[in-house]
Amino acid sequence: MIDPIKKIDDLMKEHNWSDYKLSVESGLSTSTIANIHRRNTIPSIPTLEAICSAFGITLSQFFQEDGRFVELSDEQLVFFKKWSTLTASQKKLVMGLIEELK
Q: Residue 9 falls within a domain, yes or no?
């Protein structure tokens, strides 16, 4: 399981950021960032979203345990958005077409 405070610390080290820099980049107060580190306060989801945004990652990427991030192209994002609107039978047809293209 991911330790959010350790993960934030690791990301800060990767980016060579201080608490102040994270505060500026995330739009969070310096006291919020300090509380995370000094008091081991687990950040709320909105706070984590702001932190993730500052680092240019999603919440999903933040909680990825193996450290591998999958970046999707704009074209892939459009595909997945459209995919989620398809019926089960439409998805089956699309998958059949994709299998034929191999």
A: yes
Averages of pLDDT over runs of 10 residues in the chain (102 residues) are 90 94 95 91 92 89 74 79 84 89 82
DSSP 18-77: -HHHHHHHHT--HHHHHHHHHS-PPPPHHHHHHHHHHHT--HHHHT-SS----PPPHHHH
pTM over 0.90: no
Whether residue 67 lies inside any domain: the answer is no
23 and 34 Cβ atoms separated by less than 8 Å = no
Asked whether residue 45 falls in the same domain as residue 79, the answer is: no
CA 46 to chain centre: 12
Looking at the 3D structure of the chain, how many domains does it have? Answer: 2
Amino acid sitting at position 36: I
Are 52 and 20 a contacting pair, CB within 8 Å? no
Residues 13 and 40 both lie in one domain: yes
CATH code assigned at 55? 1.10.260.40
